[in-house]
Amino acid sequence: MNKAIFFDIDGTLVSFRTHEIVPSAYDAIAALRKKGHKVFITTGRPLHLIKGLQDARFDGYITFNGSYCLTSDGEEIYCDAIPPNELSALCQHEQQHGPYPYAFMGLNRVTVNYVNDRVIDVARLLDLPIPAVDNMDSVARDERIMQINLYTDEADESPVMQAIPHCISNRWSPLFSDINMRGNSKQHGIDLIATHYGIALKDTLAFGDGGNDISMLRHAGIGIAMGNANDTVKQNADYVTDDIDNNGIVKALRHLGLL
User: Is the same domain home to 125 and 144?
Assistant: First the structure.
């Protein structure tokens, strides 16, 4: 029976050390597709910021933590943007209770209210450009925004989330959090993709390493945590493989008989 395999990017396919896809993982993706399995990206990133995977072929993409799903041909399967009133509420909260940095992530660009050391650190961590500073009130009004990045400690997150009650935090780093419309997650994205392609949930596998991967690791037929994941992520997986830089993906696929 052919399977659908869902891969997180950062820390799963792409190494934080090299900022490139692990060569053995690249070969594994090609081998899986040759065997007739379907392979999908599942990420908090937008499509335009998926780097280092240009030469790997996938059957579809779950982006913005399940808020925007599409096929490899660009067919839109699902889109749940954050409403302008919710975005404006965040702008007002920051103006009244800040300052704190946050970014609006759209389908084509990312903007931030201001840049500090933490914003720069996150960009370096993920090997991404520093977001452009813009008038966030105007962006909230005029652009379709799929995700907010909040650059605060987890302890400072609660008051912000109270200002945008229809959103939910998908934190996977101590430096920042991904914020999406409530109800969206990588788990939800897997359901959407599986329905679109007629794939049974029992025939799905998910690979991840971060806090925003937990929902899909628990939900997929088999959830595989990378060896570099933290203990909480590992506790929510069916199987724990080796680190990303030690060919963890290939080792898990061989263990499961898919390679």
Answer: yes
| Residue 110 structural domain | 99-180
Cβ–Cβ under 8 Å, residues 57 and 29: yes
DSSP 155: G
pLDDT band, very low/low/confident/very high, at 52 (cuts 50, 70, 90): low
pTM (2 d.p.): 0.94
* Position 109 in a domain: yes
Instruction: Please give the Cα distance from 82 to 117 (Å, whole number).
Output: 27
22 and 52 both lie in a single domain: yes
Token code pair at residue 205: 């596998």
Residue whose tokens read 């991904």: 178
User: Across-strand partners of 205?
Assistant: 5, 222
**CATH number of residue 151's parent domain:** 3.30.1240.10
Token pair recorded at residue 109:
């660009």
Roughly how many angstroms between the first and final C-alpha of the chain, as a whole number?
14
